[in-house]
Amino acid sequence: xxxxxxxxxRTPPDEAELSVCVRAAQQGDETAFRTVYRDLQxxxxxxxxxxxxxxxxxxxxxxxxxxxxxxxxxxxEYDGFRGWATTIARNRALDHVRRRRRRPQAETTLDELxxxxxxHDTELSALGGLGTERALRxxxxxxxxxxxxxxxxxxxxxxxxxxxxxxxxxxxxxxxAAYRGLKKLAxxxx
Amino acid sequence: xxxxxINRRTAERILRGRSVGHPVARLLDSASAPAGADELDGxxxxxxxxxxxxxxxxxxxAPPEEQPSPRPTSTRRLTARVAGAVLAIGxxxxxxxxxxxxxxxxxxxxxxxxxxxxxxxxxxHTRKYAPPPPSPAPAPAAxxxxxxxxxxxxxQGRKDxxxxxxxxxxxxxxxxxxxxxxxxxxxxxxxxxxxxxPRNLPTDWPKDQKWPTEWPRELPEEWLLPLSEHKADHxxxxxxxxxxxxxxxxxxx
Lengths: 190, 253
Hints:
The structure holds 2 protein chains of 2 kinds.
Chain A: H1 5-9, H2 15-26, H3 30-52, H4 56-70, H5 78-100, H6 110-118, H7 130-140, H8 144-156, H9 160-167, H10 171-189
Helix pairs in contact in A: 2-3, 3-4, 3-5, 3-6, 3-8, 4-5, 5-9, 8-9, 8-10, 9-10
Chain B: H1 8-15, H2 23-31, H3 43-53, H4 75-95, H5 98-102, H6 146-156, H7 160-170, H8 173-185, H9 227-241
Helix pairs in contact in B: 4-6, 4-7, 4-8, 6-7, 6-8, 7-8
Keywords (chain A): Sigma factor, Transcription, Transcription regulation
InterPro entries (chain A): RNA_pol_sigma-70-like, RNA_pol_sigma-70_dom, RNA_pol_sigma70_r2, RNA_pol_sigma70_r4_t2, RNA_pol_sigma_r2, RNA_pol_sigma_r3/r4-like, WH-like_DNA-bd_sf
Protein name (chain A): RNA polymerase sigma factor
């Protein structure tokens, strides 16, 4: 199952290749892990920028450490892996906001997350490409449930069911939130 | 329908990336554009951690000669299995493991002496949260496989006398090793399950058996943490992980 370096260098690898890469990475194949990282890290980073703004890189780093540590326990294909990794990243973002606000016992709500991210919109300029930056800014103007639904489905690439698992919602609720978000985006563009 | 109107079907098509030309689709394309170089800045750090976390873990392209399992095995799981193998081999030797292999109990009921098992835990690097220093990763430490431990105990071990009945019943050392590996690892032996195990139990069980008085010490020293340290370590780990946040639907780490 060791992944050929040619596969790792070809871009972008398809889902089947990435599933193979996940399995190989679980057994210690560094090349395979690098392929998975290069596919997923930019997605996680963009999603995390919507949650914790300028701290996204730190949170992503923490998330990857946990992903690496728990990698052998994961079972499933690449779709599931993306959802699993995104859940870890999201939980790390929640932890991060709790720590930053020095309220370790308080329940952090998603509204708080959105509020934190909204204070630092300009930090998105760190992202490469004005088009990407502008697009993400527009998405982050949406209500937080719609923004998260759109980001999970478009940027991370999750299906509605997996996105629902990440958010703790039903797939239908995610579909509805994403649909409303897209309608608002369409209205803004027009 | 106007090209810019959006209904549920269009939305779903946009979300799945199959809608072309719609303004929202173009915007979402921008949002999911290929990664910029700065978005992969942390790669070296994460890869260094990956290398450290998987030191000694089996790589499929170069498996050990008698690797007991092709399944992905974490260091922690491997540690537990190795420890289990050592202890169980000791038990087999002490209580007459042939009975297990032959599916019967030869009336030899003397239990293995109850000794506290050596505290084992995962190597320290599996519990690290901070990224490793950028210095080169240390050389992988040699970890004994279950097969290695079985072989050592059957062919070289000091407790060889306790395993003689097992070896006799198995018809040879190699079969005894294969049986130990299968019993301990739960995996099918490389040559398949033995079909020619003796039906009759041996009658020459040693009468004046010298039962083991201590458990094997061959495990790497760094795995043998004091019990208190072991517990404290797990407490710290649980706290750091924030397990309460772990989603119910995902596999436990």
